[in-house]
Amino acid sequence: MAASESAGTAAAPAEIVSLGEAMVEFNQTGEGGGRLYLQGFGGDTSNFAIAAARHGARVAYLSALGDDPYGALLRQLWDEEGVDHASVETDAQAFTAIYFVTHGAQGHQFSFFRSGSAASRLTPARLPRARIEAAKVLHLSGISLAISPSACDTGLAAIECARAAGVKVSFDTNLRLKLWPVQRARAVMNDVIAQADICLPSYDDIVAISGLTDPDALVDHCLRLGAHTVALKLGEQGAIVATAQERHRIAPAACQPVDATGAGDAFGGAFVARLVAGDDLATAGRYAATVAALSTEGYGAVAPIPRAQRVRALLGAG
Question: Fewest Cβ atoms closer than 10 Å to its Cβ: which of 82, 114, 189, 281?
Fold first, then answer.
């Protein structure tokens, strides 16, 4: 296995380093009787990284890809988006994961092909610790920890590295029960939330691991565990952003949704990017909610993420 030597290195250290698994996406469209699929990109932490980059942050991605056409497509994407991928390894013995999105009466459904992927073979020994230590924020998700035992160990080692260096930790729950049982997810996520400076739970995820249902009680639960800042994503109902000192209910932005794939990742990337840029909690929350809403107006996890100019125009700031 070798690290990439592609020209993906930023001139200055990345402010946000995101760790996880990137994937190539095939998203069902309404054409051809549902038999036509749009090729795009996904992977929650890669979606997050791209959203953060589109909204002003210097971002690096940490992962591994197969030596295959899908890996090459992802590297091309990161080059186009300005995401530093110099520390994304190429694993010639594994493959780049893919997934399919289908749409029906119950919303969008996912079919993943990722078991044994390159990213799932990451180990703590290969962590680029200097990249983490030079950042302001390390981001990872429940999926980053769930795709394999070694990936979980790698994520936990990255958190330890970040905290030892004074780097903030951002964590999105992104619970996938096909990857691990809820009991293990609860134990691991509670531990990580306790170490998180920024916690980005989705409503259904945190309900499943806490047993609570009231949104404010869910926010209180995360704060009580030890998270410093919580942004609870409520889908069509907007969000709640909070610390121990302040709390704001963020109204949903108007939009014409067709596909919610990756909307939570877009929220998280924009939210953390705006906090890094110096926005206050409420301003970052309103900005991120607008990004998430607009990201639902097209198919796929990445292509519909809006650019900053459109978001600022909608918010009346430009």
Answer: 82
